[in-house]
Amino acid sequence: MEKIKKVFSTIDTGWLIRHYLFAIIFVVFFANLGALKLNIFNILGWGISMIFYPFAMLIYEQIVRFIVGDHFFILPIKWMFVWKVVRMFVILTLSIPIGLIGFAYFYYKINQE
């Protein structure tokens, strides 16, 4: 249990809380719109996805940083907003497999000694 706590304590707490809040707001917003069917299995699935979302986002950001580097792109705000929503939906939907890989990677990297 101490090794798992070490993984969470190594990641920036503000960053981790921010992504948990984004995931909760995103799911609650779409659930209120009626876009998500709410039964016990879907609630459990989205809950697990929200737990692994920050780790999936860490993996996504590292891949983007590897490809793009220190460059940035200037886009109109409406396209940037659309991209952020689509990206969040895709990462949240795939957060269980990507997040498990991310958590396992950080668990191994941090607890190597």
| Cα distance spanning the termini | 16 Å
Strand content: under 5%
**Rounded mean pLDDT score:** 84
The tally of beta strands, per DSSP, is: 0
Helix coverage percent of residues?
Answer: over 70%
Spans where pLDDT lies below 50 across 5 or more residues:
none
How many helix segments?
Answer: 5
Taken in chain order, the helices and strands follow as HHHHH
Provide the gyration radius in Å. Answer: 15 Å
Structural category: mainly alpha
Q: How many strands, what sense, and barrel or not for the largest sheet? A: none
Shape, principal axes of CA atoms:
flat
Secondary structure layout:
Blueprint lengths: L1 H9 L2 H21 L6 H29 L8 H17 L1 H16 L3
Structural commentary:
The mean pLDDT is 84. This protein is mainly α and 113 residues long. 81% of the residues lie in helices and 0% in strands. It is built from five helices and no strands.
Fill in the keyword field for this structure.
113 residues; mainly alpha; 0% strand
Concise synopsis of the structure shown:
The protein is built from five helices and no strands.
